[in-house]
Amino acid sequence: MTKPTHFRWRLLATFLVFLTIYTIFMQRTGSNALSRLNLTFSLSYEGRLQIDHFAHDSIDKAYFSHHYYTDKAPGVSLMALPWFNFFRDWFRLDKVNTDTQLMMDFITWLINGVVNAPLSALLVVLVALAAYRFRPDGNRFWMVAYLFGLATLIWPYATLLFGHNVASCFSFAAFVMAFWARTGEDPPWLLFLSGLSAGFAVIVEYPNGIIAVALLVYLWFTLQERRRILWYVAGGAIMLVLLLIYNQASFGAPWHISYMYHSAPWGAEQRKGLLGVTIPTWHKFDELLFSPRGLLYLMPVTLLAPVAYWQMFRRRRWRPEFYLFSTISLLFLLLNSAYFYTMGGSVPGPRFLLVTFPYLFVPYVFIEGRWRWLLWPLAALSALIQFAIVDGNPGVGRFANPLLQYWLPRVFLEHQGVPLVPRLRYGIPYRLSILFILIVIALGILVWLWHVAPTKKGRMKMILLTGLLLILYLVFASPLNVQHPRQIPPAFLRPSPPVRDGGPLLPTDPF
User: Fold this and answer.
1) Tens digits of per-residue pLDDT, 389-415?
2) N or C: which end of the chain has fewer CB within 10 A?
3) Are 41 and 170 contained in the same domain?
4) How many domains does the chain have?
5) pTM to 2 decimals?
6) Both 230 and 369 in a single domain?
7) In whole angstroms, what is the distance from residue 144 CA to residue 440 CA?
8) Cα torsion angle, 75, 77, 81, 87, sign
9) Looking at the domain assignment, is residue 38 inside a domain?
10) Which of the 8 DSSP states describes residue 323?
11) How far apart are CA 145 and CA 219, in angstroms?
12) Last residue in a domain, options 113, 140, 165
């Protein structure tokens, strides 16, 4: 297996490309993000798990023993805590009225830029690494990674402070480490890290427990020395204990989780069956895949998933991974076909399926022959749709067909995209800001197409190109303005109404 020259520099450049395009869009905050941030705020300001003093701004909350709590798994909130403490001191937030829509938009963007966006970019790199392990020849592995990062709903959700991309990153990192342990002579502690990563994915989003168990079964049947599996179990057990401690402190029992106490109007539905999961129905299955908010409609490239899986199945060496990938994808599809909140609210697509996307799209590396001529047009169309969703405000999904009724007209006819960092900082016009994004993507592709000799001079060329991408990120997308690093943008200090129960659905431009 011969790696491309300067492989690590190319991966770092890929990370910077996606970090830039995932951070450059400034989205309107909503109930889901605010519920997670409310726990962060409460821990920072008051040092407690109850969010009573912050619960007014989000309808997503749990009520137990006369106190409000976030209804979300605590992982993202805990990851955001040290960053919020830093930003709280750096921007002197205690001297600013943060209980406004614009300031909450700014804080949400800051936290998303240091938690969700970097992990979403890392997930793209992990997909490249996994695809490379399967097919190290040619350019297919990095092309699949770019397809994954640009042509799927991973892109819109990388700009929103939800937990799905974060959980997907940790759960897929657990698979990658387990995969390396199966196919190489890696040390046992790698399986320990895999267990830690799989366990933390559950703390971020509870349904990831399914993937943690699936990986356990995968390791049982693939490891030559089964006793090594204890390393994985030990790592996962540590995270499980932490989750049980949180549940005990918040809800009075280790086995009680936040969704059991949801206080929203649909809380009664959440308590039916197994936390809202009952029996799969064809109507919900149809909604997940074929509706105007379904996978096949918003991501036409998904049409080739059966081809990719079949090509993977034909390679006997990768049968264990085929069974793992297909099992995870089908289990989550069935689970969401039985869940009362199938589409997950006013957001693009079936967001609860995002955690399966790495397992769905890595097999695309096996697509070859005549199917490749169909793959790239579908990928281009899917990427165009994702751009329309991201730039048109992904938080608006209350239309029967949001793609045709809102996202496409807003972006391509009305030219009313969401705020972009270059425009905010330097007054760069909207179209030039979009051109900048295209240039960054083109530079990222050039990194892989550029045949650089394995010499010191070639290494220096790759370092310079990677350095250029780093500078572009710091100047045009980083949460800290290099010109005025401690200044809150004046646009967000303007008077605006306070956020109540998630605020308005339609976006407003602070410029």
Assistant:
1) 999 888 766 788 999 998 999 888 777
2) N
3) no
4) 2
5) 0.94
6) yes
7) 18
8) positive
9) yes
10) H
11) 25
12) 113
